[in-house]
């Protein structure tokens, strides 16, 4: 089966994902980076993240959350310290560090270095990620991202992320259409 | 649950068993190590699970079933695919 058959079709512009222009804005670079990452997910992929407590279903929601993470963190180091396969799953033990240099949903940047340890279990279908389940201390992550004077983290509902992601996809598709006249 | 069944379980199934208290911590650690985890890696996974009560329970219907779980994806390819995924996540 090719990578574009079945449920694991490519979404977004593969041509855009191949672009390597040096003069892209930060927003365009981020959009491009997320588009490349999203090529690795099935359309109906599920991400189970303790931060939400509910599954993120579908590329649109996952892409919006990945974008939020990219906006919030810079100088990121993602270190996989152990990895093995087990049955249908791949298990990765990881530690991520980064600087909280941008807003994370409603939380303003703190400028602090943050560090989180955890594990991910990945299940693939036809070579693409069908389900990704993350285990880490979400309360600790919230504490690290929240300045003393800041309100608590307020996350959108997963279906709100889906709606936002679909709207952004539609807007991007519209922008790619050649104009007449 | 027999030792054979435990040993052939997926990681998700082992974690589900641990969270539902159908499996002990030691049973899960032993099964993880038997599957190829280092003792340290297995311990870190269990520790991460225990620190993450809010993680939604994975939906096994999303994943391929055990009979064809690796169809088309040899274990070495799974690792290579994951390495590529991490490289993409790190490139910003």
Low-confidence stretches of chain B: 65-71
Shape of chain A: globular
Alpha plus pi helix count of chain A: 5
Low-pLDDT regions of chain A:
1-19
Q: How much helix is in the residues of chain B?
A: 55-70%
Q: What assembly state would you assign to the polypeptide chains in this entry?
A: heterodimer
**How does the overall form of chain B come out from the CA principal axes?**
globular
Taken as a percent bin, the fraction of beta residues of chain B is under 5%
Beta strands of chain A, count: 6
Q: Report the count of strand segments of chain B.
A: 0
Helix content of chain A: 25-40%
The averaged pLDDT of chain A comes out at: 85
Largest sheet of chain B: none
Distance between the termini of chain A: 41 Å
Rg calc of chain A: 17 Å
Topology:
The complex is a heterodimer of chains A (181) and B (92).
Chain A: H1 14-18, H2 26-38, E1 41-48, E2 55-57, H3 59-72, E3 73-86, E4 89-100, E5 113-125, E6 128-136, H4 138-145, H5 158-176
Chain B: H1 3-7, H2 11-19, H3 25-34, H4 39-50, H5 75-90
Helix pairs in contact in B: 2-3, 3-4
Structural notes for this entry:
The complex is a heterodimer of chains A (181) and B (92). Chain A is of the alpha+beta class. Chain A has helices spanning 14-18, 26-38, 59-72, 138-145, 158-176, and strands at 41-48, 55-57, 73-86, 89-100, 113-125, 128-136. Chain B is mainly alpha-helical and 92 residues long. Chain B is built from five helices and no strands. Chain B is globular. The relative contact order of chain B is 0.11. At the A-B interface, helix 2, strand 1, strand 3, strand 4 and strand 5 of A face helix 2, helix 4 and helix 5 of B.
């Amino acid at each position: 089966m090719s990578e574009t058959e079945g449920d694991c079709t490519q979404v977004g512009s593969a041509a855009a994902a191949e672009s390597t222009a040096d003069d892209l804005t930060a927003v365009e670079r981020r959009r491009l980076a997320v588009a490349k990452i999203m090529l690795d997910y099935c359309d109906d992929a599920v991400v189970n993240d303790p931060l939400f407590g509910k599954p993120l279903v579908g590329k649109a929601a996952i892409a919006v959350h990945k974008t939020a993470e990219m906006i919030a963190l810079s100088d990121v180091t993602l270190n996989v310290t152990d990895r093995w396969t087990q049955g249908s799953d791949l298990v990765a033990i990881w530690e991520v560090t980064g600087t909280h240099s941008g807003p994370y949903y409603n939380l303003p940047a703190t400028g602090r270095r943050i560090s989180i340890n955890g594990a991910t279990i990945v299940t693939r279908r036809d070579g693409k990620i069908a389900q990704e389940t993350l285990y880490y201390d979400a309360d600790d992550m919230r504490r690290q991202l929240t300045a003393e004077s800041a309100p608590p983290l307020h996350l959108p509902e997963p279906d709100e992320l889906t709606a936002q992601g679909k709207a952004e996809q539609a807007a991007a598709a519209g922008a790619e259409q050649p104009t007449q006249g | 649950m027999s030792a054979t069944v435990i040993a052939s379980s997926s990681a998700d199934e082992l974690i589900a068993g641990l969270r539902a208290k159908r499996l002990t911590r030691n049973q899960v650690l032993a099964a993880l190590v038997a599957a190829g985890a280092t003792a340290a890696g297995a311990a870190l996974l269990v520790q991460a699970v225990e620190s993450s009560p809010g993680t939604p329970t994975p939906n096994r219907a999303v994943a391929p079933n055990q009979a064809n779980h690796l169809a088309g994806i040899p274990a070495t390819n799974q690792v290579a695919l994951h390495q590529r995924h991490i490289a993409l996540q790190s490139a910003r």
